[in-house]
Design brief:
elongated
Length: 46
């Protein structure tokens, strides 16, 4: 049970970092705002 808890915490931290990276990439992307904004708003990770 302890291993599952540790793994869940690692996945949670990985998800937060991944969301930040994706948000940074999309905010710097040369795509139109009408496409970029809905994608950024859908990233609702803590």
């Amino acid at each position: 049970m302890l291993l599952v808890t540790a793994l869940a915490e690692m996945v949670k931290e990985y998800t937060v970092v991944l969301a930040a990276v994706v948000e940074h990439l999309f905010s710097q992307a040369p795509s139109p705002a009408r496409i970029r904004l809905p994608i950024l708003q859908s990233l609702s990770f803590p």
